[in-house]
Each structure stands twice: as structure tokens, then as C-alpha cells.
Automatic annotation (TrEMBL):
Residues 1-11 have a biased composition (Basic and acidic residues). One of its GO terms (molecular function) is ATP binding. Pfam families: IstB_IS21 (PF01695). Residues 1-31 are annotated as: Disordered. This is IstB-like ATP-binding domain-containing protein. Transmembrane segments: none annotated. Residues 29-66 form the IstB-like ATP-binding domain.
Amino acid sequence: MTIGETRKNERSQAQAEIPQDEQVRAPDGWTKTFTDPRLCAAIVDRLTFGGTIIETGTDSYRLAHTKAQHNGTS
């Protein structure tokens, strides 16, 4: 098995361990992951400070592309 195949398998296993509804979550849903509201607010503050947040919708292009590759379509 090549290094690339090993890494692909590791990513697939890690992705499979995360429940589908928790894989991609907008900042307003982070309180479900980080249950302490102050911790959640601090994390969001540090990630977004000085940045521009652009909401592009709810569907992840990368996730859809990866699923299509696993299903044999592109």
C-alpha cells in the first residue's frame, strides 16, 4: 500500500467516525459541539476576528465531490 493510499484510508476512516449531521457545521451550530457558551463565543471570536464571513449556502462542494468520487462518479 502506498503512502497516498494509506492517507486516503485514514481520511475515510476519520470521516466515517463523525456523524453526518456534525461534519460541517456553521458557527451558529457550534454550541452543540462546544457546550460551554463562553468557550464557544471565544472560539468563534478568535476564528472570525478581522475576517469576512461569506455564507455560501448549506451544501459543501468538497463533501459532495468526495462522496461522488467514492460512488465512482464525478
